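EI: anyone free to look at a 363-residue chain?
SC: sure, send it
EI:
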Amino acid sequence: MTADDEIRGGVQGTAPVPLSVLDLVTVGAGRTASDALRTSVDLSRLAESRGFHRYWVAEHHSMPGVASSSPAVILAHLAAHTDRIRLGSGGVMLPNHAPLVIAEQFGTLEAMAPGRIDLGLGRAPGTDGATAAALRRTDHLNEGADDFPQQLAELTRFLDDDFPDGHPYRRIHAVPGPVQATSPGGVQSPHRPPIWLLGSSGFSARLAGVLGLPFAFAHHFSAQNTVPALDLYRESFRPSEVLDAPYALIGVAALATDEEAEARRQVLAAALNMVRLRTGRPGLVPTPEEAEAYEFSPMERDFVSSWNANVVHGTPDEVRAGLDDLQKRTGADELMITSNAHSGEVRLRSYELIADAYGLPTA
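SC: here you go
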């Protein structure tokens, strides 16, 4: 299997492009992180059985309603409960970690689930500035983002075990990794996870294009930048050993329910969660009942209207039509769906309804 084959998914059912899952491991009011992680296991199994191409987990910190601070740990857990679906980070925030640590973590994941691991990388902190400073043990946060290309190059060399002679890291090896195949008696596969660059603006779009890497854009929280970023990626693209042509997926917030009114209730609760996060009051995802009783200020109502305008929600037919339209408008090669709601049951049902709407496999 070539790197290109691992990146490009196959279309299932009547979907316009491959469909995938982005999991934030959301924790609702009255639920625990253990509940959320059990939902992730159930959802990964559902996604695998219904023909979703890949399942990614996003790195966030210091957010009570998001239990995905350790993607590598969660992915190891999911690898033990699935057999075929691709698993990956959407993403690991590279400036928060030493490149060698990421290479070791994802080399370990690759050893656990050979040929199924993606390494998606972002340059944002995945949290607020104070938490980022605690993660990185520095107040100079811009330096991490500015150093991203150099950090990426270092991580790639650790993954490939190919630092040149004379480099200070030449005799350092990420294990598990290719060095095991070159050791006496070594039989370790030299394969390593494909790297994706993630972004919500033009920086990573251009870098992914120049390096010939696949690109994932965060449409679900930066919709106004989607088309410009994808255009920039395609214009900047240079064929590489990884890809001979651009390949871009977009993260899409979508929620399907059996009745349209219920979809509106659910996305209102998710929007209230975002209101609180954006105003420095992060908490657990509220119930729909709490959201309906909440007195939104005029400014908050404007935010909710703007936010929910980019959430594809409604009945399965409505969600399918919205996803089809979004794919046509953006030309995305893959849609990665994140269904955020208070309860795990609602999230699971949403993916099941979307799979049914597109006639995805049932086993």
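EI: The chain is about 45% helix and 15% strand.
SC: 👍
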